[in-house]
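Dear all,

This email documents one entry for the complex benchmark we are building for the journal club exercise. For each entry we list the sequence lines for every component of the assembly. Then comes the predicted three-dimensional structure of the complex as a token string, followed by one or two observations. Please use this as the template for your own entries, and keep the labels exactly as they appear.
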Amino acid sequence: MEIKYADRVDSIKPSAIRELLKLTQQPGVISFAGGLPAPESFPIEEMKRISVKVLEEQGRSALQYSTTEGYQPLREFIAKRMNKSGIDIKSDQILITNGSQQGLDFSGKLFINEGDVVICESPSYVGALNAFRAYMPKFVEVPMDDEGMKIDDLEKALIENPKTKFIYVVPTFQNPTGRTMSIERRKQLIQLACEYNVPIIEDNPYGELKFGDEEIPPVKHFDTAGIVIYLGTFSKTFCPGLRIGWVAASPDIVRKYVLAKQGADLQTNTMSQIELAKFIELYDFDEHVERVRNIYRNRRDAMLNAMKEEFPASIKYTYPDGGMFTWVELPKGIDAADILKKSLECKVAFVPGSSFYPNGGNENHFRLNYGTMSEDLIAEGIKRLGKVLRAL
Amino acid sequence: MEIKYADRVDSIKPSAIRELLKLTQQPGVISFAGGLPAPESFPIEEMKRISVKVLEEQGRSALQYSTTEGYQPLREFIAKRMNKSGIDIKSDQILITNGSQQGLDFSGKLFINEGDVVICESPSYVGALNAFRAYMPKFVEVPMDDEGMKIDDLEKALIENPKTKFIYVVPTFQNPTGRTMSIERRKQLIQLACEYNVPIIEDNPYGELKFGDEEIPPVKHFDTAGIVIYLGTFSKTFCPGLRIGWVAASPDIVRKYVLAKQGADLQTNTMSQIELAKFIELYDFDEHVERVRNIYRNRRDAMLNAMKEEFPASIKYTYPDGGMFTWVELPKGIDAADILKKSLECKVAFVPGSSFYPNGGNENHFRLNYGTMSEDLIAEGIKRLGKVLRAL
């Protein structure tokens, strides 16, 4: 039989990265490809204690259906933690989602009619682009520099595209570039969003993984109009396997996200939400995050130091102050996909950059993730990659 | 600011039942309203042992990202169990979802363009209707009798609606009616679906909860053309809090569901999938399901016996051979919502029937769930409800 799918199915493409991951998971490959967090950072021993405790104390409710909005003590912790980072938010403005990826899908579902415009950074997070694509928007890319989205270009994009439904940004330690939007730009972004009456989706999975002392308040901190929809996650600060993220927004907006969640899967895993809340109750979350940061900081240093040694001077790359990624720019005319082929021959993997550009092009970029591999393997992998690059 | 949502947002309605649940969860209310499984059936002690074992043996992978398709040993178990119920399926045709609700959402996403037709039983599962509504279909209801969907009416609906994208059925111990489609009708349903080239979504959350000895093969059992998309769940046989369900379909179709899952939330909770697989490895799942069945069978008996005693003879209701629900028909002109008000005064709750009809009407029906309350409370609740009904 010939199946008649919905029109949107033609837009739902396999994630280039998820497909690539299958290749790179072969034994012996040093992978800088996926966005996998460091498994050394997972609180396995603590989880053993917690899971038994949760089942003992509240087993019946931990295994039962619960509310769509999420486990109340967890929502309260999130609200308080956001308050600490300078965001005025209450627990009833928090919806717990299956990772922040689900918040991205709901953003597409709630805002995008076919042909509407999504403005995003160029390049942008490929998982978000894939989530939005299912709702058939047109993507308008705004160029970046080391301070993030260029504001003049953003305003031009807003003027030229009255059907813009939202501006999607990963302002802090961005995936894929590792760049962070300056405070000045954050304020200007809010100002423009208000002026053109277009909400901002602030996706902030990496903000907690900061290596320096400088405080960079989230864009949401500067939001007095309720125009920023904030997506958070515990995938990097706790672990991704439990799939716990959240949406934080003004009450009327979050209410729409709750309705989307009801239809989509009723609620997030009850047991995992309670376990996470129990971890926060029994352990010092700040201390835990500090431990996680140290792991990533050391790996960032290992990779960036090795790149300095091993990469030819003609190759540019970003120096991230947090998060998991650095972004490499090859001389124009060189295709990162060709480099990947050669690099895989030496058992080193990364992600070519073009899939991070929703409208294609920019084949001379690639993304390196320093989060997953040990420092030794990072040094060895960069050495091999440097050899490939120097042979150009 | 005034937010411009997508057009579909007007179609996303709060679930009448989820809203009602908030009312009925007040202390002292005997609730026959929600679809909550019996918490006595949850394997809490076993889960304690399992969660520690999983973290000890494979903590790092249990807390890490994993594949979109799902945990392979779990997919294999599901395929084998479906094989046992007479369905020819392989593990790579299984996608693990966040409960079967997510399979419903993806069905809407993959098949429905605005204005397309979804054919469903009348009445039908309200959670499915809500999931589909986000994609703006037109619902065409097919009347039922005690053997399920009336096949002549189904054919009429297919002829009259060439834009039909799928037929949605809960053929076994249906929610809300407790009815089961006869084997003859199952065969006819497949035949019509093939003839009109329209896929069937078979939603089967209750099939395992059967009280008698009669074997009722799933509709998918009769499917030689690959036209049935089967949705299963562990929410009733294991527990709903872990949110584990699945989609089983022909390889090309399941591939589309995998892509929808990638964009929607990357993957289902890794830890919970491994825990469930470990439960299946260490314990006898058949024995466990038998224990669960016994709980529900006793409660079915408690409720139906009490109804026989306490309800006036003018009131008709179904006699379910499995599952969690019986469906009550009041004399025409009586609104179940009015009865609910009186019933809540005596602290007894149920769900009025009209929300199960996508196009409204049929106010003289309501649904009773016998799954959640103990036998004593069932007897007491039905006694109170009988009093309200006899006073009509």
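Observations: The longest strand of chain B covers residues 138-145. Chain B is about 40% helix and 15% strand.
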